[in-house]
């Protein structure tokens, strides 16, 4: 559903799209429309919300990497190829994520901008490692082994010009039980604006999402995360001002999904072990498999081994149908690949998608037991999650302010691919194929 950005008075003519304009896109991961009233009380998010804003429906699945790729390609997952956060690696306890930009199967905004001679930069943006077209890339990537290993792999995945920023700011990467990139990403973005003055800059800030996963949707910790992120956004906005770029820069704040409270954690692969469809070695690790459920937040992708025959396929599908019919197993439906592609623009190397009952988080693991309830004494998992069907919960935020955005307007509801098409429009670029359209109309 598309709408237009109204031009503010004394801005460029619509016939000269992108002339002398810059673009900064800041992702506040997991910010939703219900957060807007509180965000308006914060000094810097309120500056962006004073322009135009509205809701944006995520693509399926409503997880970070597919949606952030849609924000740079204007495609759904079937078009850009990033069908989950993690790559499917059956038996691997911590699968690799889709860090490598070369996995994207459609042109990105960075590709289009590079072809036009614009300087592009990204900081912490998903699926930008080893990018062939981003001039200054400092991607989101980590090594669970620790901080030193994370600094090394981050430097390796960065572009040649990006490595200088990694070297200058690596000391600002935080680490407690996992990586903390917010302070680092902000410092790098501010440095880039002052030093390289890129025409296009994408920045990813994840603190709100992390707080929601671990403490719930609306908690004091989430409020504190918003306050931190607001301060970082202020640093980026102030850096644009200090560099003399603010008047010619359109700034967007986007997000990728809402959150749903988790009521249970489901390990479908534990049931597949019991059925002999996954076989373990003496150490309890996966030795071989015929079927695998790849957790994708509140849904699970059903995979068959590439060498599985028709009889195995029929057996697995019949088994999953018994799960759907069993009230003790939290699977509401098996949605076939063809249905997902037609209705949601979703495709990948799976035979179908398991839609969990409300608040069911899918895990890849296979040991322990198949189901953990929120009030079980040994429940130690996420309290809030996403990955559900896009229409099922509160929507993401799309806000913009700048010389080509009228102040005080409300965008009608759009989609995440529409955001990328809008960014291209503002830069005078056009995707050769897109599932989104520029937001061109607004309502007061």
Automatic annotation (TrEMBL):
Pfam families named among the record's database cross-references: Phosphodiest (PF01663)
InterPro entries xref list: Alkaline_phosphatase_core_sf (IPR017850), Phosphodiest/P_Trfase (IPR002591)
Gene3D superfamilies: Alkaline Phosphatase, subunit A
CDD domains according to UniProt: Enpp
PANTHER family in UniProt: BIS(5'-ADENOSYL)-TRIPHOSPHATASE, ECTONUCLEOTIDE PYROPHOSPHATASE/PHOSPHODIESTERASE
Protein name, per record: Alkaline phosphatase family protein
Organism encoding this protein: Brachybacterium sacelli
């Amino acid at each position: 559903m598309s709408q237009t950005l109204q031009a503010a008075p004394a801005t460029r003519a619509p016939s000269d799209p992108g002339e002398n304009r810059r673009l900064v896109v800041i992702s506040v991961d997991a910010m939703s429309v219900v957060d807007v009233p509180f965000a308006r009380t914060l000094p810097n998010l309120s500056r962006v919300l004073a322009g135009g804003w509205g809701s944006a429906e995520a693509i399926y699945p409503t997880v970070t990497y597919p949606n952030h790729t849609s924000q740079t390609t204007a495609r759904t997952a079937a078009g850009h190829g990033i069908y989950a956060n993690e790559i499917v690696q059956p038996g691997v306890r911590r699968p690799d994520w889709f860090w490598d930009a070369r996995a994207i199967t459609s042109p990105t905004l960075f590709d289009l901008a590079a072809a036009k001679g614009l300087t592009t930069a990204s900081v912490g943006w998903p699926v930008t490692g080893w990018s062939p077209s981003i001039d200054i890339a400092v991607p989101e990537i980590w090594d669970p082994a620790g901080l030193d290993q994370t600094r090394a792999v981050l430097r390796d995945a960065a572009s040649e010009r990006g490595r200088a920023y990694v070297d200058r700011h690596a000391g600002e990467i935080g680490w407690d039980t996992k990586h903390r990139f917010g302070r680092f990403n902000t410092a790098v973005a501010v440095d880039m604006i002052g030093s390289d003055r890129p025409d296009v800059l994408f920045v990813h800030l994840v603190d709100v999402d992390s707080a929601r996963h671990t403490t719930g949707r609306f908690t004091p910790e989430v409020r504190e995360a918003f306050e931190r992120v607001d301060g970082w956004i202020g640093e980026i906005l102030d850096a644009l001002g200090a560099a003399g770029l603010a008047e010619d820069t359109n700034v967007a704040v986007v997000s990728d999904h809402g959150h749903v409270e988790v009521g249970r954690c489901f390990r479908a692969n534990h049931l597949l072990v019991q059925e002999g469809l996954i076989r373990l070695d003496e150490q309890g690790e996966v030795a071989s498999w015929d079927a695998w459920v790849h957790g994708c937040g509140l849904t699970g992708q059903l995979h068959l081994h590439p060498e599985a025959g028709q009889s195995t396929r029929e057996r697995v599908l019949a088994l999953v149908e018994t799960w759907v019919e069993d009230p003790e197993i939290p699977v509401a439906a098996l949605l076939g690949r063809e249905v997902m592609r037609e209705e949601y623009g979703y495709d990948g190397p799976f035979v179908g998608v398991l839609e969990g009952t409300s608040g069911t988080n899918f895990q890849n693991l296979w040991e322990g037991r198949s189901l953990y309830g929120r009030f079980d004494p040994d429940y130690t998992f996420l309290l809030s999650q996403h990955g559900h069907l896009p229409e099922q919960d509160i929507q993401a935020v799309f806000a913009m302010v700048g010389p080509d955005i009228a102040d005080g307007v409300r965008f009608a509801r759009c989609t995440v691919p529409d955001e990328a098409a809008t960014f291209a429009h503002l830069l005078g670029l056009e995707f050769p194929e897109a599932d989104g359209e520029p937001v061109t109309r607004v309502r007061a």
